[in-house]
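Tip: read the tokens left to right.
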């Protein structure tokens, strides 16, 4: 298989499943082994090109687990179908790398791994927010370079976000969790933008505001913005949690960056192309008090020229979901998707996936994106 090495687990399994990266933990392999699968895992850290994946699928493959860094397009699903494939799962909750419509045309169900990334990703967004606002990266580099000569009144002055306004673009599960962490932990007013109102978020903030009043403290508020611009103008820090599609490509561009306060913070843990990275570089250069915290990049693993040279930008290498519990849970769900499909289990497609993470595995398939289109049996 070209220059990529593969490890085989349970070689006597009658069903063949390929996994394009080694995944954390052991439970996921046990799930596939219990489903009588021979599991072949690519051990390379490099991103597999499409041709290498196609080569790995041939001549026979029942299912595959792929990565968000790989294009699972019409060609890929045609190759999987030609090999006899009946199941695919993305090792991610997002699936902008997957042509779900193409998979549906080939009759292949597509799984993803929701429900285990929420708090982990929201925590990283909080961490990036305060790392940027309090200039943690700059201060650490300064210290490590041996430049610290003692306390100074004006050394690395940052922004106090206590009782300020936090903006959330995309108030799904992760955006909601982030908003609550900032509101409850730091008494911040919340303004959010989403195509759908999040009544649960509004109710949570309202209930916490009542609690604050009962304690003799000032309340906080939660407001749904009419436009992205309204949010950007009002917020002291903005965290992006939207999906990536044609409507959100470069959602944050030069014009919208100009709407923000000159000392605001923008954080992105969603998908890189949501921000026009070149425009962000220009904005950060011309607004030295502006801050950004990025976990994802427009053309990963590459960054826009100059981004890594900016002191007012905190950058980390796509690790928002990188806790052991979350990454092992993602592996469990991806394996359970493939095993469940191969075993003919009905589709769960519910938000609570805790039953899959410990104890005996339910005899259902956790999360299949195109289950209705394929007419798959759903759990009632």
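Filled-in amino acids:
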């Amino acid at each position: 298989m070209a220059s990529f090495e593969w490890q085989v687990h349970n070689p006597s399994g009658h069903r063949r499943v390929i996994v394009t990266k080694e995944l954390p933990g052991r439970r996921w392999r046990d799930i596939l082994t219990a489903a009588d699968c021979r599991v072949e895992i690519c051990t390379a850290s490099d991103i597999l090109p499409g041709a290498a994946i196609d080569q790995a699928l041939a001549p026979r493959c029942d299912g595959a687990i792929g990565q968000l860094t790989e294009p699972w397009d019409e060609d890929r699903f045609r190759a999987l179908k030609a090999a006899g494939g009946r199941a695919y799962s993305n090792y991610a909750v997002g699936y902008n790398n997957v042509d779900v419509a193409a998979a549906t045309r080939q009759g292949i169900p597509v799984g993803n791994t929701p429900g285990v990334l929420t708090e982990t990703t929201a925590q990283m967004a909080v961490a990036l927010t305060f790392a940027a606002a309090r200039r943690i990266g700059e201060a650490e580099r300064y210290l490590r370079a041996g430049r610290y000569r003692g306390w100074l009144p004006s050394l690395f002055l940052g922004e106090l976000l206590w009782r300020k306004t936090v903006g959330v673009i995309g108030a799904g599960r992760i955006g909601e969790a982030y908003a609550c962490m900032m509101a409850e932990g730091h008494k911040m007013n919340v303004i959010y933008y989403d195509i759908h109102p999040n009544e649960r978020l509004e109710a949570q903030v309202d209930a916490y505001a009542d609690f604050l009043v009962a304690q003799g403290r000032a309340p906080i508020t939660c407001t749904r913005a009419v436009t992205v611009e309204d949010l950007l103008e009002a917020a002291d820090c903005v965290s992006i949690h939207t999906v990536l599609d044609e409507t959100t490509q470069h959602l944050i561009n030069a014009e919208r960056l100009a709407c923000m306060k000159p000392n605001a913070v923008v954080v992105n843990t969603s998908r890189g192309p949501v921000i026009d990275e070149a425009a962000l570089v220009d904005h950060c250069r011309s607004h030295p008090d502006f801050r950004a915290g990025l976990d994802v990049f427009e053309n990963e693993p590459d960054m826009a020229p100059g981004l890594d040279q900016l002191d007012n930008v905190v950058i980390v290498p796509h690790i928002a979901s990188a806790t052991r519990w979350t990454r092992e849970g993602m592996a469990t769900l991806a394996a359970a998707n493939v095993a469940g499909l191969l075993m003919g289990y009905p589709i769960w497609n519910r938000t609570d996936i805790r039953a899959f993470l410990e104890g005996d595995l339910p005899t259902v398939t956790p999360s299949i994106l195109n289950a209705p289109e394929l007419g798959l049996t759903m759990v009632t």
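The two ends are 43 Å apart (CA to CA). The CA atoms of residues 134 and 158 lie 5 Å apart.
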